[in-house]
Amino acid sequence: MSTTVNFTSSVDRDLLRRAKIIAAKHDTSVNALFNAELRHLVETFEAAEQTHNQNYSILLSFSLGRLDSDTAQSALGLAGEEDLFLLLAQARLPMPRLPEAMTQSMVESLNQLMIGTQH
After folding, report:
1. By C-alpha distance, which of 5, 92, 103, 95 is closest to 40?
2. Number of domains the chain is built from
3. pLDDT by residue (tens digit) across 12-40?
4. How far apart (Å, rounded) are the C-alpha atoms in residues 36 and 29?
5. What is the pTM of this model?
6. The domain containing residue 109 runs over which residues?
7. What pLDDT does 7 receive?
8. At 9, is the secondary structure helix, strand, or coil?
9. Residue 8 falls within a domain, yes or no?
10. Residues 49, 55: contact at Cβ < 8 Å?
């Protein structure tokens, strides 16, 4: 028996707008889309854990920006980034985010460039 609970979350305004368009085109709700995707994520992760297969966990960590591409490729025994991104797509995971440290470094570099061009 499944019971539902309400929870509060935040989402990017543009992402929500785009999700509403998709939901309307498919005569469903954003909530139904969210539940389907979350269910897929959880069930895929649990199935991989039951078989002691860490591949999905590695791909998820890469998608979340917790692993760089070289580390993910090595852990999965892949020859190149193309194979890594194909697996990511097959697993229905989003393209990776840059690790926070790398993002911050890029922001600092851009800020330095801006300061340098103002003088």
Report:
1. 92
2. 1
3. 899 899 999 999 999 999 999 999 988 88
4. 11
5. 0.57
6. 13-117
7. 84
8. coil
9. no
10. no
CB 56 within 8 A of CB 44: yes
**DSSP conformational letter for 38:** H
Distance between CA atoms of residues 76 and 55, nearest Å: 6
Residue type, 34: F
What single-letter amino acid sits at 10? S
Per-residue burial over 96-108, b = 16 or more CB atoms within 10 Å of its CB, e = otherwise? beeeeeeeeeeee
User: Residue 95 corresponds to which tokens in the numbers above?
Assistant: 């393209």
Distance (Å, whole) CA 110 – CA 104: 10
119 pLDDT band, cuts 50/70/90, is low
Q: Say if 73 falls within a structural domain.
A: yes
Amino acid at 81: E
pLDDT in tens, 64-79: 888 989 999 999 999 9
Tokens in use for 44?
A: 């895929």
Structure tokens at 109: 């570099």
The pLDDT of residue 1 is above 70: no
Give the model's pLDDT for residue 53.
78
